[in-house]
Design a protein that fits this description.
The chain is of the alpha/beta class. It folds into two domains: 170 residues, D-Maltodextrin-Binding Protein, domain 2 (3-Layer(aba) Sandwich); 99 residues, D-Maltodextrin-Binding Protein, domain 2 (3-Layer(aba) Sandwich), CATH 3.40.190.10. 40% of the residues lie in helices and 20% in strands. It contains ten helices and ten strands. Strands 1, 2, 3, 4, 5, 6, 7, 8, 9 and 10 form a ten-stranded mixed sheet that branches. α5 links the parallel β5 and β6. The radius of gyration is 19 Å and the shape is globular. It comes from Variovorax soli. This is Tripartite-type tricarboxylate transporter receptor subunit TctC. InterPro entries: BUG, Bug_dom1. Keywords: Receptor.
Length: 306
């Protein structure tokens, strides 16, 4: 244990490179590297099945502290979305701590002929099934947010799933799809440079960063109390030795205080966790609560879609 780690760590990201969770992971990996005294942290993008392939890979990995998982809200939503999972989120992992929470934005191709959320809502309701809304695959944050938005306005759009957020964003920018509901970590730059039309952010108050300060909240757009945030946490395979788990939790907490990491996340509209959820037990308790919270919501959405 005294020499751990004495070789590079692998941080599995269960989504494509360039997507919002990948962005958080790469920023966090750099902060981890510094907290580990310069030890290399390798990003391994294992995308597919809404994050389930990458998560299952880590669940089966050797419990030696060298293969870790950085995952998002899907740790709590997957049990309600999939009848069969190759892993058990609450049983097959050691919880290491929460990292950040990221709000969502509803964005559209720049030539979409509506100016704000109210006009978009009227268009969706007037022409059900006409508009398309891209996502990063079934169970992704973009998919969930899009479903909840349609449920909230009692409207219907055609979902277009992709194998990750990066290809979905590419088609949105190219005009092949009309809309996408995605994390600020993936949309803030495109919003700031005017490449996307933005209809709202899912926070109670506006985000006070240069890229997002002008973006209205959903409340301002007339859709009250629409709140969706994507959180990220760090996990190790079940059975990892306690000494290594404690070491990794200490590395996580140090990384969350890294000035460069804090700055980069703030620029993207992300909120770095500073409360007790950075602890192992509180992290797991939070995911259990989120699992219970999302289960009835997702079942209602699925029933409405049927």
């Amino acid at each position: 244990m005294a020499q751990y780690p004495d070789k590079p760590l692998t941080l599995v990201v269960p989504y494509t490179a360039g997507g919002p969770t990948d962005r958080v992971a790469r920023d966090f990996a750099e902060a981890m590297r510094k907290a580990l005294g310069g030890q290399t942290v390798i990003i391994d993008n294992v995308a597919g099945a809404g994050g389930n392939i990458g998560a299952a890979k880590v669940a089966r990995a050797a419990p030696d502290g060298y293969t870790l998982l950085l995952h998002n809200i899907a740790m709590a939503t997957s049990p309600a979305l999939y009848r069969k999972l190759a892993y058990k989120p609450l049983e097959d992992f050691e919880y290491l701590g929460m990292i950040s929470e990221v709000p969502m934005t509803l964005v559209g191709r720049p030539d979409l002929p509506v100016a704000n959320l109210a006009e978009l809502t009227r268009m969706v309701l007037a022409e059900p099934g006409k508009l398309t809304i891209g996502n990063a695959g079934v169970g992704s944050a973009a998919h969930l947010c899009g479903l909840l938005f349609q449920q909230a306005i009692k409207g219907n759009m055609v979902a277009v799933p992709y194998k990750g957020t990066a290809p979905a964003m590419s088609d949105l920018l190219g005009g092949q799809v009309d809309l996408m509901c995605d994390q600020t970590t993936n949309t803030s730059a495109q919003i700031a440079n005017g490449k996307l039309k933005v209809f709202g952010v899912t926070t109670a108050a506006r985000i006070r960063t240069p890229q997002l300060a002008a973006v209205p909240t959903f409340d301002e757009g007339g859709l009250k109390d629409f709140r969706v945030a994507v959180w990220h946490g760090l996990y190790a395979p079940k059975g990892t030795p306690p000494a290594i788990l404690n070491k990794l939790n200490g590395v996580l907490k140090t990384s969350l205080r890294d000035p460069d990491f804090l700055r980069r996340e703030a620029d993207l509209g992300a909120v770095v966790v500073t409360d007790e959820r950075s602890g192992r037990e509180d992290h797991k308790r939070f995911v259990m609560q989120e699992t219970q919270r999302w289960a009835p919501v997702l079942k209602a959405v699925a029933s409405a879609a049927d």
